[in-house]
Predict the structure.
Amino acid sequence: MTIENRKEAVGFIGIGKMGLPMASRIAAQGYPLHVYDISEAALKAICSRTTARAQKTLKDLGRNCEVVILMLPDSEVVKRVLFGEKEGLAAHLSRGSVVIDMSSSNPSVTREIGPQLKEAGVDFIDAPVSGGVKRAIDGSLAIMAGGDSAVIARVKPLLSTMGQTLIETGMLGSGHAMKALNNYVSAAGLLAACEALKVGSDFGIAPDKIIAVLNASTGKNNSTENKLMQFVVSKRFNSGFSLGLMRKDISIAADLAKSTGSRTLLGEVLLKSWADAEVKLGGAADHTEIFRILDR
Ligand code: NAD
């Protein structure tokens, strides 16, 4: 966002697989950028390639920034960063500043955080993303934003440094709800695609033929196009999105369905499949490694 043509000071917390390319794009657009992460290596990675300034504490970051972006693992970490006993960020933000949670967080927690920040005169919106590391690097992420339209409009220029599509989804938390639902669909599509690959291969069809048919036919989805050959058949398993984070997103979608009383047929089996895979392979495994559980 800009005030009188001045680019506002931006804070970015969580310089991980996604945060690094996203924050790098913000710095490249000339925003004064302050970064914070509990990992020294993460801070080194961004400061060595951009003009970003690493801050030692959340207090320093809060005092220096007018907009703060969070790109953290989950809602628990988001709450700790904002309201942590020792030095939560919220206590150090000035009135009129904005916090944007771009993590894939739990919408019910997001809806609790909003009013708490509002009391301190701080605006809060959720703006999670889809597209993975590849689209974070080229700035073509899909962003789904929930919360006050006027606040979203205020930070639109900043968001547009990271994403090509910005869809306003409605009330606070609706972006996080949509993110979980998107990944529910994505996880189901990947597992179905892996199963087709496994069954077809066991039947004796070459993997490249299986994928070619799916992509020329009605079974095509994002995983058949962008994951099966690239990460599964190649055995590279390095898409940059962990299995644990995907399981978290499916859990959020399942909780959401419970809270709305909506009926789902796949929900339970999908969550159990990914939770079992997390136990067997570990949360740090790449999410495309879900294919491996079909071999056991
Ligand atoms: P990551 O684990 O690579 O990065 C998380 C970063 O947060 C790490 O650098 C970690 O050190 C930092 N962190 C953890 N606790 C912290 C704390 N208390 N204070 C400051 N920093 C802390 O994860 P990621 O893959 O970059 O994902 C980040 C978020 O984006 C998650 O919510 C994830 O679900 C979502 N997401 C990921 C992808 C993807 O393809 N990787 C795509 C879309 C959305």
About this structure: The longest strand covers residues 163-170. The chain has two domains: 10-171, 177-294.
